[in-house]
Amino acid sequence: MAKKGKNGIIHLENSPYILSYAAAVGKKEGEGPFAAYFDCVDMSPSPDGCSWEQEESGLQQKALHTALKKGGFEASDIDILYAGDLLNQSISSTFGLREFGIPFVGLFGACSTMSLSLSMASLAVDSGAAEKAAAVTSSHFCTAERQFRTPVDYGGQRTPSAQWTVCGSGAVIVGKSGKVRICDILLGKITDLGQTDANNMGAAMAPAAADTISRYLDATETEPSDYDMIVTGDLGTVGSQLLHELLIGTGIDISLVHKDCGMMIFDLEKQDVHAGGSGCGCSASMLCGYILRKMEEGELKNVLFCATGALMSTTSSQQGESIPGICHAVHLTA
Amino acid sequence: MAKKGKNGIIHLENSPYILSYAAAVGKKEGEGPFAAYFDCVDMSPSPDGCSWEQEESGLQQKALHTALKKGGFEASDIDILYAGDLLNQSISSTFGLREFGIPFVGLFGACSTMSLSLSMASLAVDSGAAEKAAAVTSSHFCTAERQFRTPVDYGGQRTPSAQWTVCGSGAVIVGKSGKVRICDILLGKITDLGQTDANNMGAAMAPAAADTISRYLDATETEPSDYDMIVTGDLGTVGSQLLHELLIGTGIDISLVHKDCGMMIFDLEKQDVHAGGSGCGCSASMLCGYILRKMEEGELKNVLFCATGALMSTTSSQQGESIPGICHAVHLTA
Prior knowledge:
Two copies of one chain form a homodimer. Chain A has helices at residues 52-71, 91-97, 113-127, 141-148, 201-220, 236-248, 261-264, 280-296, 314-318; strands at residues 2-4, 10-12, 17-25, 40-41, 80-85, 104-106, 133-139, 164-165, 168-175, 180-186, 229-232, 258-260, 277-278, 302-310, 325-333. The first copy, chain A, is of the alpha/beta class. In chain A, the strands form two sheets. In chain A, strands 1, 2, 3, 4, 5, 6, 7, 9, 10, 11, 12, 14 and 15 form a 13-stranded mixed β-sheet that branches. A two-stranded parallel sheet of chain A has the order 8-13. The two termini of chain A are 21 Å apart.
């Protein structure tokens, strides 16, 4: 039974656990500082006739197949599959995962999808609706770039605040036993401070992260120092700096425990990604590659995982709208 | 506590109920046979400078505001808001609902979103994660037409199998008491028989509806005649005929109790909508306008609500992909 608490926090009293997880990434991510943690790194060029969108669907397939295999499960063991991605009508997920034949809940949380899908899968298991549930998401540099910005072949100059969409996918299987427990979740509110620069996603998402993290700490009466890591999804260097400033303004200093998946996944000095990595696959592959591994090994015990998303489309930006953000928090303990 | 049953059915043992609901529709829907049942019918031209996307967001705002008002609630009474729509990155929902400040779960289920969001809201209340949860969705003829098909001004000839996207939105508030109870839900699987005609959504979605309805009847050991109405979302005339044929092939005859929101909302003889209405807003406004009203009044007692969605994008169709469908079922009793 879940229990609603202060600020809308949801305490999961039946304690769902992480049963299995896997991360599949592309070439550039496989050359980054966390390469050794990813289950599948694809260094090969795609077969002829395979579109970038199909490649991205393939990343989701690999991540879910591997998570099932590592846990010793079949697709038919999974009761509900929660998934979404950045593409119009979430085609990476629907086309990538249709072959599994699992009851499917499509989500849209932009780059916050890993914490959103993990929240929903945890709630399903906690409530008894599912014995086992899976959460999957992905992103791909070329599919995102051509959909949201400019044709990839055009080779446009990127601004210093721009981030590099990660080619990657993460899959988590949630069930009733394991080493890592999902304790509680806080679903984010749509937060919009009027930022309109589509080349500065970090600034658009930072206010949502600040809102969710401060509401979470308040609801649980905890301090940043109570966590081994408060990890955001893909704020990058610009958004992370803004997050610190916004929180300091409310008397909260997370700088000693804060990490951002967008600043971790690439070598910011050497890999020419400007403000860092981004995309649903960024926090997904860091969670399912590095973070959950370190939790299982006991090196990290208490992690607040806060993936962040920017909820705009090219249409909304062309119509002069600002960029709303959202951040969902999941508290994990080992 | 929810209980997982045969075929993945989820029995909601704490019996969440419909607390309030409202439907907001456009001019054409307000001239159809169910006009009297909609809470808001907008006959006025939009203000200058208002885009069609903003109009669609406005329909969601009206539906949710009205549902809150009818129930005597404030936005702050709602713990979780589940919403989604057809537009790229679900902008009708994110821009329409950001002002409410409710913790937000974005969903993507295409035209199945009303039964998906209602399922998720019901599970949240049943599990204790929320005291009250809301489910909202919408569609708009002009936003859908220009995004998925041709520029509206172009006035292209429509095929006989084409459907007319409904301008409409529905909002439901789920809580712990009321006249209409949500008994159980069955989440759909992605179903794809290889249909590729983007002007024939009914044919793409009918196999998913057949799969979900037959699995539901099997799981509950019930017959079509046990229901006052088995209602699909927007199969239209072509998809409804196919659904009947697919089910007859498995020994199930739903023809006496089957209704399709797409065939109900417009006068198919007089309103020139070809195969019927479609869009998330079609089943949403029929549920929140007509069906729930008739259930509260006692005229309908036992309804299986099965909204259906087609999960393609223009990109997937341009790449030659087929059109996968999905159908989620919600069992309502008065």
